[in-house]
Amino acid sequence: MESLLAATGSVHIRATLPATAAFPAPSAARTVAVGSAAARAVRCAAAKDSMFYPLEHDEMFNATEVIQWESGMSINAIAAAQGIRIRRRCQSRYPSEGTGADRAVPRNILEQIIWDKEVEVSQKRAKKPLQKAVESAQSAPPARDFVGALAAARFRNGVPALIAEVKKASPSRGVLREHFNPVEIADAYEKNGAACLSILTDEKHFQGSFENLETVRNSGVKCPLLCKEFVIDIWQIYHARSKGADAILLIAAVLPDIDIKYMLRICKNLGMTALIEVHDERELDRVLKIDGVQLIGINNRSLETFEVDTANTKILLEKRGAIIKKKGILVVSESGLFTPDDVAYVQDAGVSAVLVGESLVTQEDPGQAITGLFGKQLLA
Question: Would you state the pLDDT for residue 19?
Protein backbone atom coordinates (compact mmCIF):
# COMPACT_ATOMS: atom_id res chain seq x y z
CA MET A 1 0.00 0.00 0.00
CA GLU A 2 1.30 3.44 -0.90
CA SER A 3 -0.55 5.92 1.27
CA LEU A 4 1.11 9.03 2.67
CA LEU A 5 1.73 7.13 5.89
CA ALA A 6 3.73 4.57 3.95
CA ALA A 7 5.31 7.17 1.70
CA THR A 8 6.58 9.77 4.18
CA GLY A 9 9.90 7.99 4.09
CA SER A 10 9.83 7.41 0.37
CA VAL A 11 11.39 9.26 -2.49
CA HIS A 12 7.96 9.17 -4.18
CA ILE A 13 6.69 11.97 -1.94
CA ARG A 14 8.74 14.20 -4.25
CA ALA A 15 5.81 14.11 -6.67
CA THR A 16 3.65 16.00 -4.17
CA LEU A 17 6.14 18.59 -2.92
CA PRO A 18 7.71 21.62 -4.64
CA ALA A 19 9.89 20.58 -7.54
CA THR A 20 12.61 23.03 -6.51
CA ALA A 21 13.13 21.42 -3.11
CA ALA A 22 16.01 19.09 -2.34
CA PHE A 23 15.16 15.70 -0.87
CA PRO A 24 17.02 12.98 1.00
CA ALA A 25 17.68 9.54 -0.34
CA PRO A 26 14.91 7.04 0.56
CA SER A 27 16.90 5.41 3.34
CA ALA A 28 17.76 8.72 4.96
CA ALA A 29 14.20 10.00 4.75
CA ARG A 30 12.83 6.81 6.30
CA THR A 31 15.29 7.10 9.17
CA VAL A 32 13.90 10.50 9.95
CA ALA A 33 10.25 9.82 9.20
CA VAL A 34 9.62 6.60 11.03
CA GLY A 35 9.85 5.57 14.62
CA SER A 36 11.04 7.46 17.67
CA ALA A 37 10.52 10.83 19.26
CA ALA A 38 14.21 11.44 18.63
CA ALA A 39 13.63 11.03 14.91
CA ARG A 40 10.86 13.65 15.00
CA ALA A 41 13.14 15.97 16.95
CA VAL A 42 15.80 15.64 14.26
CA ARG A 43 13.23 16.42 11.58
CA CYS A 44 11.75 19.38 13.42
CA ALA A 45 15.19 20.85 14.11
CA ALA A 46 16.12 20.89 10.41
CA ALA A 47 17.72 24.11 9.28
CA LYS A 48 16.29 26.01 6.32
CA ASP A 49 19.17 24.95 4.10
CA SER A 50 18.82 21.31 5.12
CA MET A 51 17.48 18.73 2.71
CA PHE A 52 14.92 17.82 5.41
CA TYR A 53 13.47 21.34 5.68
CA PRO A 54 10.84 20.99 2.90
CA LEU A 55 9.50 17.83 4.54
CA GLU A 56 9.45 19.33 8.03
CA HIS A 57 7.40 22.24 6.75
CA ASP A 58 5.00 20.24 4.60
CA GLU A 59 1.60 20.20 6.30
CA MET A 60 0.86 16.58 5.43
CA PHE A 61 4.22 15.33 6.64
CA ASN A 62 3.33 16.80 10.02
CA ALA A 63 -0.31 15.67 10.04
CA THR A 64 -1.92 14.00 13.03
CA GLU A 65 -2.04 10.68 11.21
CA VAL A 66 1.71 10.71 10.60
CA ILE A 67 2.39 11.43 14.27
CA GLN A 68 0.02 8.57 15.20
CA TRP A 69 1.84 6.30 12.75
CA GLU A 70 5.20 7.23 14.22
CA SER A 71 3.91 6.54 17.73
CA GLY A 72 2.95 3.00 16.78
CA MET A 73 -0.74 3.15 15.82
CA SER A 74 -1.75 0.79 13.04
CA ILE A 75 -3.29 1.99 9.79
CA ASN A 76 -6.60 0.42 10.80
CA ALA A 77 -6.55 2.13 14.19
CA ILE A 78 -5.87 5.50 12.58
CA ALA A 79 -8.70 4.92 10.08
CA ALA A 80 -11.13 3.73 12.76
CA ALA A 81 -10.54 6.92 14.72
CA GLN A 82 -12.00 8.75 11.71
CA GLY A 83 -15.04 6.45 11.57
CA ILE A 84 -13.72 4.30 8.73
CA ARG A 85 -15.11 0.79 9.06
CA ILE A 86 -13.33 -0.78 6.10
CA ARG A 87 -10.28 -2.61 7.43
CA ARG A 88 -7.04 -3.15 5.56
CA ARG A 89 -5.18 -6.45 5.58
CA CYS A 90 -2.01 -5.37 3.76
CA GLN A 91 -1.44 -8.97 2.70
CA SER A 92 0.06 -10.22 -0.55
CA ARG A 93 -2.38 -13.11 -0.88
CA TYR A 94 -6.15 -13.29 -1.08
CA PRO A 95 -8.07 -13.73 2.21
CA SER A 96 -9.65 -16.96 0.97
CA GLU A 97 -6.17 -18.48 0.60
CA GLY A 98 -5.45 -18.36 4.33
CA THR A 99 -6.12 -21.07 6.89
CA GLY A 100 -7.30 -20.93 10.48
CA ALA A 101 -6.94 -17.50 12.06
CA ASP A 102 -5.28 -16.23 8.88
CA ARG A 103 -8.43 -16.89 6.85
CA ALA A 104 -10.08 -13.50 7.17
CA VAL A 105 -13.79 -12.86 6.76
CA PRO A 106 -14.76 -9.44 5.35
CA ARG A 107 -17.55 -7.46 6.99
CA ASN A 108 -19.15 -6.45 3.69
CA ILE A 109 -18.62 -6.51 -0.06
CA LEU A 110 -16.62 -3.27 -0.09
CA GLU A 111 -14.16 -4.68 2.43
CA GLN A 112 -13.85 -7.84 0.31
CA ILE A 113 -13.14 -5.72 -2.77
CA ILE A 114 -10.49 -3.71 -0.93
CA TRP A 115 -8.73 -6.83 0.38
CA ASP A 116 -8.67 -8.30 -3.11
CA LYS A 117 -7.48 -4.96 -4.49
CA GLU A 118 -4.48 -5.00 -2.16
CA VAL A 119 -3.33 -8.25 -3.74
CA GLU A 120 -4.06 -7.09 -7.28
CA VAL A 121 -2.18 -3.80 -6.91
CA SER A 122 0.76 -5.53 -5.26
CA GLN A 123 1.05 -7.87 -8.23
CA LYS A 124 0.70 -5.07 -10.79
CA ARG A 125 3.28 -2.90 -9.05
CA ALA A 126 5.72 -5.79 -9.15
CA LYS A 127 5.37 -5.83 -12.93
CA LYS A 128 5.32 -2.05 -13.38
CA PRO A 129 7.11 -0.17 -10.55
CA LEU A 130 5.75 3.14 -9.32
CA GLN A 131 8.46 5.19 -11.00
CA LYS A 132 7.52 3.69 -14.38
CA ALA A 133 3.86 4.48 -13.72
CA VAL A 134 4.78 8.07 -12.83
CA GLU A 135 6.79 8.48 -16.04
CA SER A 136 3.96 7.04 -18.14
CA ALA A 137 1.44 9.39 -16.53
CA GLN A 138 3.62 12.43 -17.04
CA SER A 139 4.08 11.65 -20.73
CA ALA A 140 0.35 11.17 -21.39
CA PRO A 141 -1.65 13.82 -23.31
CA PRO A 142 -3.17 16.54 -21.09
CA ALA A 143 -6.24 15.60 -19.08
CA ARG A 144 -9.64 16.86 -20.16
CA ASP A 145 -11.67 19.21 -17.95
CA PHE A 146 -14.06 16.86 -16.14
CA VAL A 147 -15.70 19.46 -13.88
CA GLY A 148 -16.00 21.93 -16.74
CA ALA A 149 -17.77 19.34 -18.90
CA LEU A 150 -20.30 18.68 -16.13
CA ALA A 151 -21.01 22.37 -15.60
CA ALA A 152 -21.42 23.01 -19.33
CA ALA A 153 -23.82 20.07 -19.80
CA ARG A 154 -25.92 21.13 -16.83
CA PHE A 155 -26.23 24.64 -18.25
CA ARG A 156 -26.94 23.32 -21.75
CA ASN A 157 -29.75 20.94 -20.76
CA GLY A 158 -31.20 22.42 -17.58
CA VAL A 159 -30.95 19.08 -15.80
CA PRO A 160 -28.14 17.38 -13.86
CA ALA A 161 -25.22 16.48 -16.08
CA LEU A 162 -24.85 12.79 -16.82
CA ILE A 163 -21.82 10.68 -16.01
CA ALA A 164 -22.75 7.53 -17.93
CA GLU A 165 -21.09 4.33 -16.77
CA VAL A 166 -19.54 1.67 -18.98
CA LYS A 167 -20.13 -1.35 -16.79
CA LYS A 168 -20.31 -5.04 -17.59
CA ALA A 169 -21.10 -6.56 -14.19
CA SER A 170 -21.58 -5.87 -10.50
CA PRO A 171 -21.18 -7.96 -7.33
CA SER A 172 -24.88 -7.69 -6.51
CA ARG A 173 -26.37 -8.26 -9.98
CA GLY A 174 -23.75 -10.32 -11.79
CA VAL A 175 -23.36 -9.78 -15.53
CA LEU A 176 -25.44 -6.81 -16.66
CA ARG A 177 -24.73 -7.00 -20.38
CA GLU A 178 -23.71 -10.18 -22.19
CA HIS A 179 -22.76 -8.44 -25.45
CA PHE A 180 -20.35 -5.93 -23.96
CA ASN A 181 -18.42 -3.64 -26.28
CA PRO A 182 -17.08 -0.70 -24.26
CA VAL A 183 -16.40 1.49 -27.29
CA GLU A 184 -19.90 0.99 -28.75
CA ILE A 185 -21.47 1.82 -25.40
CA ALA A 186 -19.25 4.86 -24.85
CA ASP A 187 -19.96 6.19 -28.32
CA ALA A 188 -23.72 5.75 -27.84
CA TYR A 189 -23.56 7.58 -24.52
CA GLU A 190 -21.63 10.50 -25.98
CA LYS A 191 -23.93 10.88 -29.00
CA ASN A 192 -26.97 10.96 -26.70
CA GLY A 193 -25.79 13.73 -24.40
CA ALA A 194 -23.59 12.23 -21.68
CA ALA A 195 -21.26 14.91 -20.32
CA CYS A 196 -18.65 12.46 -19.04
CA LEU A 197 -18.13 8.71 -18.93
CA SER A 198 -17.25 6.40 -16.05
CA ILE A 199 -15.21 3.32 -16.95
CA LEU A 200 -15.12 0.40 -14.49
CA THR A 201 -11.56 -0.90 -14.19
CA ASP A 202 -11.95 -3.46 -11.37
CA GLU A 203 -11.46 -6.93 -12.84
CA LYS A 204 -12.39 -9.40 -10.11
CA HIS A 205 -15.78 -8.03 -9.06
CA PHE A 206 -16.95 -5.88 -12.00
CA GLN A 207 -15.26 -7.56 -14.98
CA GLY A 208 -13.73 -4.23 -15.95
CA SER A 209 -10.16 -3.41 -16.92
CA PHE A 210 -7.68 -0.63 -17.54
CA GLU A 211 -7.58 -1.94 -21.09
CA ASN A 212 -11.24 -0.90 -21.48
CA LEU A 213 -10.33 2.57 -20.24
CA GLU A 214 -7.46 2.86 -22.69
CA THR A 215 -9.51 1.47 -25.58
CA VAL A 216 -12.31 3.98 -25.03
CA ARG A 217 -9.83 6.84 -24.73
CA ASN A 218 -8.14 5.90 -28.00
CA SER A 219 -11.43 5.32 -29.85
CA GLY A 220 -12.09 8.97 -30.61
CA VAL A 221 -14.63 9.52 -27.82
CA LYS A 222 -14.16 13.10 -26.63
CA CYS A 223 -15.99 12.98 -23.28
CA PRO A 224 -13.78 13.24 -20.20
CA LEU A 225 -13.31 9.83 -18.57
CA LEU A 226 -13.61 8.86 -14.92
CA CYS A 227 -11.59 5.84 -13.88
CA LYS A 228 -14.02 3.95 -11.60
CA GLU A 229 -11.47 2.12 -9.50
CA PHE A 230 -11.16 1.21 -5.82
CA VAL A 231 -8.10 3.31 -5.10
CA ILE A 232 -5.85 2.32 -2.20
CA ASP A 233 -2.48 3.19 -3.71
CA ILE A 234 -1.09 6.17 -5.61
CA TRP A 235 0.17 3.73 -8.26
CA GLN A 236 -3.44 3.36 -9.42
CA ILE A 237 -3.79 7.11 -9.99
CA TYR A 238 -0.65 7.34 -12.10
CA HIS A 239 -1.59 4.19 -14.01
CA ALA A 240 -5.10 5.52 -14.68
CA ARG A 241 -3.70 8.81 -16.03
CA SER A 242 -1.33 6.90 -18.31
CA LYS A 243 -4.33 4.99 -19.70
CA GLY A 244 -6.28 8.15 -20.47
CA ALA A 245 -8.27 8.89 -17.32
CA ASP A 246 -9.20 12.52 -16.70
CA ALA A 247 -10.71 11.87 -13.27
CA ILE A 248 -10.54 9.19 -10.60
CA LEU A 249 -12.78 7.95 -7.81
CA LEU A 250 -11.61 8.26 -4.20
CA ILE A 251 -13.82 6.58 -1.57
CA ALA A 252 -13.98 8.25 1.85
CA ALA A 253 -15.18 4.99 3.42
CA VAL A 254 -11.79 3.48 2.52
CA LEU A 255 -9.25 6.31 2.66
CA PRO A 256 -8.16 8.26 5.77
CA ASP A 257 -8.17 12.04 5.47
CA ILE A 258 -4.41 12.25 4.95
CA ASP A 259 -4.58 9.85 2.00
CA ILE A 260 -7.37 11.85 0.39
CA LYS A 261 -5.28 15.02 0.77
CA TYR A 262 -2.19 13.30 -0.58
CA MET A 263 -4.06 11.85 -3.55
CA LEU A 264 -5.77 15.17 -4.27
CA ARG A 265 -2.33 16.74 -4.52
CA ILE A 266 -1.21 14.10 -6.99
CA CYS A 267 -4.39 14.57 -9.04
CA LYS A 268 -3.80 18.33 -9.16
CA ASN A 269 -0.22 17.81 -10.33
CA LEU A 270 -1.50 15.53 -13.10
CA GLY A 271 -4.36 17.85 -14.10
CA MET A 272 -6.94 15.27 -12.99
CA THR A 273 -10.20 15.66 -11.10
CA ALA A 274 -10.99 13.58 -8.02
CA LEU A 275 -14.58 12.48 -7.44
CA ILE A 276 -14.68 11.89 -3.69
CA GLU A 277 -17.45 9.50 -2.75
CA VAL A 278 -19.30 9.63 0.57
CA HIS A 279 -22.08 7.49 2.00
CA ASP A 280 -23.10 9.28 5.19
CA GLU A 281 -22.93 12.49 7.19
CA ARG A 282 -19.68 11.69 8.98
CA GLU A 283 -17.85 10.97 5.73
CA LEU A 284 -19.27 14.15 4.18
CA ASP A 285 -18.11 16.24 7.13
CA ARG A 286 -14.61 14.80 6.85
CA VAL A 287 -14.41 15.64 3.15
CA LEU A 288 -15.77 19.17 3.62
CA LYS A 289 -12.82 19.94 5.92
CA ILE A 290 -10.33 19.11 3.14
CA ASP A 291 -9.12 21.92 0.89
CA GLY A 292 -9.17 21.54 -2.88
CA VAL A 293 -12.26 19.33 -3.21
CA GLN A 294 -14.18 20.11 -6.39
CA LEU A 295 -16.51 17.15 -6.75
CA ILE A 296 -18.35 15.06 -4.16
CA GLY A 297 -20.35 11.97 -5.01
CA ILE A 298 -23.15 10.89 -2.67
CA ASN A 299 -23.65 7.15 -2.97
CA ASN A 300 -27.22 6.14 -2.22
CA ARG A 301 -26.20 2.54 -1.59
CA SER A 302 -25.72 1.46 2.02
CA LEU A 303 -22.33 -0.10 2.77
CA GLU A 304 -23.89 -2.33 5.38
CA THR A 305 -26.99 -3.66 3.60
CA PHE A 306 -26.22 -2.74 -0.04
CA GLU A 307 -29.77 -1.42 -0.26
CA VAL A 308 -30.36 1.76 -2.26
CA ASP A 309 -32.33 4.83 -1.19
CA THR A 310 -32.09 8.09 -3.13
CA ALA A 311 -33.31 9.90 -0.01
CA ASN A 312 -29.69 9.70 1.15
CA THR A 313 -28.79 12.45 -1.32
CA LYS A 314 -31.62 14.66 -0.14
CA ILE A 315 -30.91 14.14 3.56
CA LEU A 316 -27.21 14.94 3.28
CA LEU A 317 -27.79 18.02 1.12
CA GLU A 318 -30.46 19.32 3.51
CA LYS A 319 -27.86 19.14 6.27
CA ARG A 320 -24.75 20.34 4.45
CA GLY A 321 -25.98 21.91 1.21
CA ALA A 322 -25.22 25.48 2.32
CA ILE A 323 -21.59 24.66 3.13
CA ILE A 324 -21.18 22.77 -0.14
CA LYS A 325 -22.60 25.71 -2.11
CA LYS A 326 -20.35 28.18 -0.29
CA LYS A 327 -17.29 26.10 -1.17
CA GLY A 328 -18.35 25.89 -4.82
CA ILE A 329 -18.33 22.09 -4.82
CA LEU A 330 -20.40 20.18 -7.37
CA VAL A 331 -22.38 17.20 -6.08
CA VAL A 332 -23.03 13.98 -7.97
CA SER A 333 -25.81 11.58 -6.94
CA GLU A 334 -24.87 7.93 -7.43
CA SER A 335 -26.95 4.71 -7.48
CA GLY A 336 -30.68 4.08 -7.62
CA LEU A 337 -31.52 6.37 -10.54
CA PHE A 338 -33.82 4.73 -13.09
CA THR A 339 -36.58 7.20 -14.09
CA PRO A 340 -37.15 10.91 -14.84
CA ASP A 341 -38.77 11.17 -11.40
CA ASP A 342 -35.60 9.84 -9.78
CA VAL A 343 -33.52 12.43 -11.61
CA ALA A 344 -35.96 15.22 -10.74
CA TYR A 345 -35.89 14.17 -7.07
CA VAL A 346 -32.11 14.52 -6.73
CA GLN A 347 -32.12 17.65 -8.89
CA ASP A 348 -34.55 19.27 -6.48
CA ALA A 349 -32.24 18.18 -3.67
CA GLY A 350 -29.46 20.25 -5.26
CA VAL A 351 -27.17 17.96 -7.25
CA SER A 352 -25.26 19.12 -10.30
CA ALA A 353 -24.80 15.68 -11.87
CA VAL A 354 -25.84 12.05 -11.69
CA LEU A 355 -23.73 8.94 -12.20
CA VAL A 356 -25.79 6.19 -13.81
CA GLY A 357 -24.78 2.78 -15.10
CA GLU A 358 -27.11 -0.12 -14.45
CA SER A 359 -30.31 1.48 -15.71
CA LEU A 360 -28.58 2.37 -19.01
CA VAL A 361 -26.27 -0.53 -19.75
CA THR A 362 -28.99 -3.14 -19.21
CA GLN A 363 -31.10 -1.65 -22.02
CA GLU A 364 -30.83 -2.88 -25.61
CA ASP A 365 -29.76 0.60 -26.74
CA PRO A 366 -27.86 2.29 -23.86
CA GLY A 367 -27.73 5.58 -25.76
CA GLN A 368 -31.48 5.80 -26.27
CA ALA A 369 -31.93 4.76 -22.64
CA ILE A 370 -30.58 8.19 -21.68
CA THR A 371 -33.70 9.77 -23.17
CA GLY A 372 -35.83 7.45 -21.10
CA LEU A 373 -33.88 8.29 -17.94
CA PHE A 374 -34.28 12.07 -18.34
CA GLY A 375 -37.64 12.10 -20.11
CA LYS A 376 -36.17 14.13 -22.96
CA GLN A 377 -33.37 14.13 -25.52
CA LEU A 378 -30.22 15.67 -24.11
CA LEU A 379 -28.14 18.05 -26.21
CA ALA A 380 -24.68 16.62 -26.83
Answer: 32
